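Aim 2 progress. For Tripartite-type tricarboxylate transporter, receptor component TctC, the working sequence is reproduced below.
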Amino acid sequence: MKNMLRFTLAAATLVTATAASAQTYPTKPITMVIPFAAGGPTDVVGRLIAQSMSKTLGQQVIVENTVGAGGTIAAARVAHAQPDGYTILLHHIGQSTAPSLYRKLSFDPLTSFETAGLVTEVPMTVVARGNFPAKDFSSMVQYIKANKDKINLANAGTGSASHLCGMLFQHAINTQFTTIPYKGTGPAMNDLLGGQVDIMCDQTTNTTSYIKSGKIKAYAVTTPKRLAVFPDLPTTREAGVQNFEVSVWHGLYAPKGTPRPVIDKINGALKVALKDQLVIDRFAGLGTEPVAENRTSPEVHKQFLQSEIAKWKTVIQQAGVQPE
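Predicted C-alpha coordinates for this construct:
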Protein backbone atom coordinates (compact mmCIF):
# COMPACT_ATOMS: atom_id res chain seq x y z
CA MET A 1 0.00 0.00 0.00
CA LYS A 2 2.83 2.39 0.91
CA ASN A 3 4.64 1.64 -2.35
CA MET A 4 1.48 2.31 -4.35
CA LEU A 5 0.95 5.55 -2.46
CA ARG A 6 4.53 6.62 -3.21
CA PHE A 7 4.01 5.76 -6.89
CA THR A 8 0.75 7.73 -7.04
CA LEU A 9 2.35 10.75 -5.39
CA ALA A 10 5.36 10.57 -7.71
CA ALA A 11 3.10 10.35 -10.75
CA ALA A 12 1.03 13.28 -9.54
CA THR A 13 4.19 15.30 -8.93
CA LEU A 14 5.45 14.49 -12.43
CA VAL A 15 2.15 15.53 -14.01
CA THR A 16 2.15 18.78 -12.03
CA ALA A 17 5.77 19.52 -12.95
CA THR A 18 5.10 18.77 -16.63
CA ALA A 19 2.05 21.04 -16.64
CA ALA A 20 4.00 23.83 -14.97
CA SER A 21 6.86 23.40 -17.43
CA ALA A 22 4.44 23.55 -20.36
CA GLN A 23 2.90 26.76 -19.04
CA THR A 24 6.28 28.53 -18.83
CA TYR A 25 7.60 27.09 -22.11
CA PRO A 26 9.92 28.18 -23.60
CA THR A 27 12.53 29.27 -21.05
CA LYS A 28 15.59 28.63 -23.23
CA PRO A 29 16.52 28.49 -26.92
CA ILE A 30 14.85 25.87 -29.14
CA THR A 31 16.78 23.78 -31.64
CA MET A 32 15.13 23.30 -35.02
CA VAL A 33 16.80 20.33 -36.71
CA ILE A 34 16.82 20.45 -40.52
CA PRO A 35 17.79 17.25 -42.37
CA PHE A 36 19.56 18.90 -45.28
CA ALA A 37 22.54 21.14 -45.91
CA ALA A 38 22.61 24.88 -45.27
CA GLY A 39 21.54 26.89 -48.30
CA GLY A 40 19.28 24.16 -49.68
CA PRO A 41 15.54 24.66 -50.24
CA THR A 42 14.39 23.05 -46.99
CA ASP A 43 17.00 25.05 -45.08
CA VAL A 44 15.73 28.28 -46.64
CA VAL A 45 12.15 27.49 -45.57
CA GLY A 46 13.27 26.50 -42.08
CA ARG A 47 15.36 29.59 -41.44
CA LEU A 48 12.55 31.91 -42.52
CA ILE A 49 10.13 30.16 -40.19
CA ALA A 50 12.64 29.98 -37.32
CA GLN A 51 13.35 33.71 -37.49
CA SER A 52 9.68 34.60 -37.23
CA MET A 53 8.86 31.98 -34.58
CA SER A 54 11.69 33.32 -32.38
CA LYS A 55 9.87 36.63 -32.08
CA THR A 56 6.59 35.00 -31.06
CA LEU A 57 8.08 32.50 -28.60
CA GLY A 58 10.44 34.99 -26.97
CA GLN A 59 13.35 32.58 -27.33
CA GLN A 60 15.72 32.04 -30.21
CA VAL A 61 14.92 29.14 -32.52
CA ILE A 62 18.35 27.92 -33.57
CA VAL A 63 18.65 26.04 -36.85
CA GLU A 64 20.89 22.98 -36.83
CA ASN A 65 21.60 21.12 -40.07
CA THR A 66 21.92 17.38 -39.49
CA VAL A 67 22.45 15.82 -42.89
CA GLY A 68 22.61 12.28 -44.20
CA ALA A 69 20.57 9.24 -45.20
CA GLY A 70 17.81 11.20 -46.89
CA GLY A 71 16.85 13.03 -43.72
CA THR A 72 16.52 9.93 -41.54
CA ILE A 73 19.50 10.80 -39.33
CA ALA A 74 17.93 14.12 -38.38
CA ALA A 75 14.49 12.57 -37.93
CA ALA A 76 15.92 9.85 -35.67
CA ARG A 77 17.70 12.44 -33.58
CA VAL A 78 14.51 14.35 -32.91
CA ALA A 79 12.44 11.20 -32.41
CA HIS A 80 14.78 10.15 -29.58
CA ALA A 81 15.17 13.62 -28.05
CA GLN A 82 13.57 14.70 -24.78
CA PRO A 83 9.85 15.38 -25.39
CA ASP A 84 9.99 18.87 -23.93
CA GLY A 85 9.64 21.04 -27.04
CA TYR A 86 13.26 22.19 -27.11
CA THR A 87 14.20 19.96 -30.04
CA ILE A 88 11.91 20.10 -33.06
CA LEU A 89 12.16 18.92 -36.65
CA LEU A 90 11.40 20.69 -39.91
CA HIS A 91 11.19 18.01 -42.58
CA HIS A 92 9.79 17.78 -46.07
CA ILE A 93 8.05 15.07 -48.06
CA GLY A 94 10.89 12.71 -47.11
CA GLN A 95 9.13 12.07 -43.81
CA SER A 96 6.46 10.20 -45.77
CA THR A 97 8.78 8.33 -48.15
CA ALA A 98 11.35 7.08 -45.63
CA PRO A 99 9.41 3.90 -44.70
CA SER A 100 9.42 2.85 -48.36
CA LEU A 101 13.01 3.85 -49.11
CA TYR A 102 14.77 2.37 -46.07
CA ARG A 103 14.56 -1.16 -44.70
CA LYS A 104 15.47 -0.28 -41.13
CA LEU A 105 14.48 2.90 -39.34
CA SER A 106 14.93 3.61 -35.65
CA PHE A 107 11.72 5.62 -35.68
CA ASP A 108 8.23 5.56 -37.17
CA PRO A 109 7.18 8.76 -38.96
CA LEU A 110 3.63 8.42 -37.61
CA THR A 111 4.11 7.12 -34.07
CA SER A 112 7.47 8.59 -33.01
CA PHE A 113 6.44 12.23 -33.38
CA GLU A 114 3.84 14.79 -32.48
CA THR A 115 2.85 16.70 -35.61
CA ALA A 116 2.96 20.46 -35.10
CA GLY A 117 1.61 21.79 -38.40
CA LEU A 118 2.18 22.00 -42.14
CA VAL A 119 4.24 24.92 -43.44
CA THR A 120 4.29 25.13 -47.22
CA GLU A 121 4.06 23.12 -50.43
CA VAL A 122 6.87 23.97 -52.81
CA PRO A 123 6.48 23.38 -56.59
CA MET A 124 9.18 21.52 -58.49
CA THR A 125 10.83 22.58 -61.73
CA VAL A 126 12.50 20.45 -64.40
CA VAL A 127 15.72 22.26 -65.26
CA ALA A 128 18.88 21.62 -67.27
CA ARG A 129 22.36 23.02 -67.77
CA GLY A 130 22.44 26.33 -69.59
CA ASN A 131 23.59 24.87 -72.92
CA PHE A 132 21.25 21.89 -72.98
CA PRO A 133 20.13 21.54 -76.63
CA ALA A 134 16.36 20.95 -76.19
CA LYS A 135 14.13 23.98 -76.82
CA ASP A 136 11.08 22.87 -74.81
CA PHE A 137 9.91 20.07 -72.53
CA SER A 138 8.59 17.85 -75.32
CA SER A 139 11.87 18.04 -77.22
CA MET A 140 13.72 17.48 -73.96
CA VAL A 141 11.89 14.18 -73.46
CA GLN A 142 12.64 13.18 -77.06
CA TYR A 143 16.30 14.09 -76.63
CA ILE A 144 16.56 12.07 -73.41
CA LYS A 145 15.04 8.99 -75.02
CA ALA A 146 17.39 9.24 -77.98
CA ASN A 147 20.46 9.78 -75.77
CA LYS A 148 19.58 7.94 -72.56
CA ASP A 149 23.05 6.36 -72.31
CA LYS A 150 24.67 9.79 -72.33
CA ILE A 151 22.24 11.77 -70.14
CA ASN A 152 22.74 12.15 -66.40
CA LEU A 153 20.38 13.41 -63.73
CA ALA A 154 21.59 15.08 -60.54
CA ASN A 155 19.89 14.82 -57.17
CA ALA A 156 20.65 15.76 -53.57
CA GLY A 157 20.80 12.16 -52.34
CA THR A 158 18.44 9.29 -51.60
CA GLY A 159 15.16 10.50 -50.15
CA SER A 160 15.71 14.11 -51.18
CA ALA A 161 13.02 16.00 -53.06
CA SER A 162 15.14 16.05 -56.20
CA HIS A 163 15.62 12.28 -55.96
CA LEU A 164 11.88 11.66 -55.69
CA CYS A 165 11.09 14.06 -58.51
CA GLY A 166 13.75 12.55 -60.75
CA MET A 167 12.47 9.07 -60.02
CA LEU A 168 8.93 10.08 -61.00
CA PHE A 169 10.23 11.80 -64.12
CA GLN A 170 11.95 8.65 -65.37
CA HIS A 171 8.89 6.58 -64.52
CA ALA A 172 6.55 9.03 -66.29
CA ILE A 173 8.52 9.01 -69.55
CA ASN A 174 9.31 5.30 -69.25
CA THR A 175 13.04 5.89 -69.72
CA GLN A 176 15.88 5.14 -67.32
CA PHE A 177 19.10 7.13 -67.46
CA THR A 178 22.11 7.71 -65.22
CA THR A 179 21.37 9.23 -61.82
CA ILE A 180 24.12 10.98 -59.87
CA PRO A 181 23.42 11.47 -56.14
CA TYR A 182 25.15 14.31 -54.28
CA LYS A 183 25.51 15.13 -50.61
CA GLY A 184 23.05 17.98 -50.70
CA THR A 185 21.30 20.32 -53.11
CA GLY A 186 24.15 22.84 -53.18
CA PRO A 187 26.78 20.52 -54.70
CA ALA A 188 24.25 19.12 -57.18
CA MET A 189 23.24 22.60 -58.33
CA ASN A 190 26.88 23.69 -58.57
CA ASP A 191 27.62 20.89 -61.01
CA LEU A 192 24.48 21.68 -63.01
CA LEU A 193 25.60 25.31 -63.23
CA GLY A 194 29.04 24.14 -64.30
CA GLY A 195 27.65 21.82 -66.96
CA GLN A 196 29.03 18.65 -65.34
CA VAL A 197 25.52 17.18 -65.20
CA ASP A 198 22.61 17.58 -67.60
CA ILE A 199 19.30 17.66 -65.75
CA MET A 200 17.84 18.21 -62.31
CA CYS A 201 14.33 18.32 -60.90
CA ASP A 202 14.23 20.53 -57.84
CA GLN A 203 12.16 22.90 -55.75
CA THR A 204 11.51 26.46 -56.84
CA THR A 205 13.10 27.60 -53.57
CA ASN A 206 16.39 26.42 -55.06
CA THR A 207 15.96 27.01 -58.79
CA THR A 208 14.08 30.31 -59.14
CA SER A 209 17.04 32.70 -58.92
CA TYR A 210 19.13 30.62 -61.36
CA ILE A 211 16.24 30.40 -63.82
CA LYS A 212 15.65 34.15 -63.69
CA SER A 213 19.35 34.86 -64.20
CA GLY A 214 19.47 32.54 -67.21
CA LYS A 215 22.18 30.35 -65.67
CA ILE A 216 20.06 27.23 -66.13
CA LYS A 217 17.20 26.35 -68.49
CA ALA A 218 13.70 25.69 -67.14
CA TYR A 219 11.42 23.34 -69.05
CA ALA A 220 8.33 22.66 -66.92
CA VAL A 221 6.72 22.85 -63.49
CA THR A 222 5.34 19.74 -61.81
CA THR A 223 2.13 21.33 -60.56
CA PRO A 224 -1.47 21.16 -61.87
CA LYS A 225 -1.37 24.86 -62.79
CA ARG A 226 1.27 27.33 -63.87
CA LEU A 227 3.18 29.42 -61.33
CA ALA A 228 2.79 33.17 -60.95
CA VAL A 229 6.56 33.53 -60.74
CA PHE A 230 6.96 31.72 -64.12
CA PRO A 231 3.72 32.32 -66.05
CA ASP A 232 5.23 31.21 -69.37
CA LEU A 233 6.56 27.92 -68.04
CA PRO A 234 4.18 25.04 -68.92
CA THR A 235 3.09 22.34 -66.55
CA THR A 236 4.29 18.81 -67.28
CA ARG A 237 0.73 17.84 -68.17
CA GLU A 238 0.41 20.72 -70.64
CA ALA A 239 3.65 19.52 -72.18
CA GLY A 240 2.17 16.07 -72.74
CA VAL A 241 3.57 14.04 -69.83
CA GLN A 242 0.95 12.50 -67.56
CA ASN A 243 1.34 11.22 -63.98
CA PHE A 244 4.19 13.60 -63.24
CA GLU A 245 2.80 16.06 -60.72
CA VAL A 246 4.54 16.55 -57.40
CA SER A 247 5.14 19.31 -54.88
CA VAL A 248 7.30 19.18 -51.80
CA TRP A 249 5.50 19.91 -48.57
CA HIS A 250 7.16 20.79 -45.28
CA GLY A 251 5.97 20.21 -41.73
CA LEU A 252 7.04 20.70 -38.11
CA TYR A 253 7.44 17.82 -35.64
CA ALA A 254 8.30 17.27 -32.00
CA PRO A 255 9.19 14.03 -30.20
CA LYS A 256 6.29 11.77 -29.21
CA GLY A 257 5.04 12.63 -25.76
CA THR A 258 5.68 16.36 -26.00
CA PRO A 259 2.90 17.94 -23.88
CA ARG A 260 -0.03 19.24 -25.87
CA PRO A 261 0.26 22.77 -24.40
CA VAL A 262 3.82 22.90 -25.75
CA ILE A 263 2.69 21.66 -29.17
CA ASP A 264 -0.01 24.33 -29.14
CA LYS A 265 2.60 27.04 -28.48
CA ILE A 266 4.81 25.77 -31.29
CA ASN A 267 1.81 25.58 -33.60
CA GLY A 268 0.67 29.06 -32.58
CA ALA A 269 4.10 30.50 -33.37
CA LEU A 270 4.06 28.70 -36.73
CA LYS A 271 0.67 30.19 -37.60
CA VAL A 272 1.97 33.66 -36.79
CA ALA A 273 5.04 33.03 -38.96
CA LEU A 274 2.89 31.97 -41.91
CA LYS A 275 1.08 35.33 -41.69
CA ASP A 276 4.32 37.29 -41.35
CA GLN A 277 4.55 39.52 -44.43
CA LEU A 278 8.31 39.03 -44.63
CA VAL A 279 7.82 35.26 -44.79
CA ILE A 280 5.00 35.60 -47.33
CA ASP A 281 7.09 37.89 -49.53
CA ARG A 282 10.20 35.69 -49.33
CA PHE A 283 8.13 32.60 -50.09
CA ALA A 284 6.58 34.35 -53.11
CA GLY A 285 10.02 35.23 -54.41
CA LEU A 286 10.90 31.55 -54.19
CA GLY A 287 7.79 30.46 -56.09
CA THR A 288 5.81 29.17 -53.12
CA GLU A 289 3.41 30.34 -50.41
CA PRO A 290 2.28 29.29 -46.91
CA VAL A 291 -0.32 26.54 -46.74
CA ALA A 292 -3.92 27.58 -46.11
CA GLU A 293 -4.66 28.20 -42.43
CA ASN A 294 -7.06 25.24 -42.24
CA ARG A 295 -4.10 22.96 -43.00
CA THR A 296 -1.82 24.21 -40.23
CA SER A 297 -3.35 22.28 -37.31
CA PRO A 298 -1.51 19.28 -35.81
CA GLU A 299 -4.52 17.06 -36.55
CA VAL A 300 -4.70 17.94 -40.25
CA HIS A 301 -0.93 17.55 -40.51
CA LYS A 302 -1.10 14.02 -39.06
CA GLN A 303 -3.92 12.98 -41.38
CA PHE A 304 -2.03 14.37 -44.37
CA LEU A 305 1.19 12.59 -43.35
CA GLN A 306 -0.69 9.30 -43.07
CA SER A 307 -2.18 9.70 -46.55
CA GLU A 308 1.19 10.67 -48.04
CA ILE A 309 2.90 7.61 -46.57
CA ALA A 310 0.31 5.39 -48.24
CA LYS A 311 0.52 7.29 -51.56
CA TRP A 312 4.30 7.23 -51.84
CA LYS A 313 4.50 3.57 -50.86
CA THR A 314 2.49 2.75 -53.97
CA VAL A 315 4.46 5.14 -56.22
CA ILE A 316 7.85 3.88 -55.06
CA GLN A 317 6.86 0.24 -55.42
CA GLN A 318 5.50 0.83 -58.93
CA ALA A 319 8.74 2.59 -59.86
CA GLY A 320 10.63 -0.55 -58.84
CA VAL A 321 12.83 1.22 -56.29
CA GLN A 322 14.40 -1.20 -53.80
CA PRO A 323 14.77 -0.04 -50.17
CA GLU A 324 18.30 0.59 -48.96
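Residues 2-24 form the longest helix (23 residues). This observation will guide construct design in the next reporting period.
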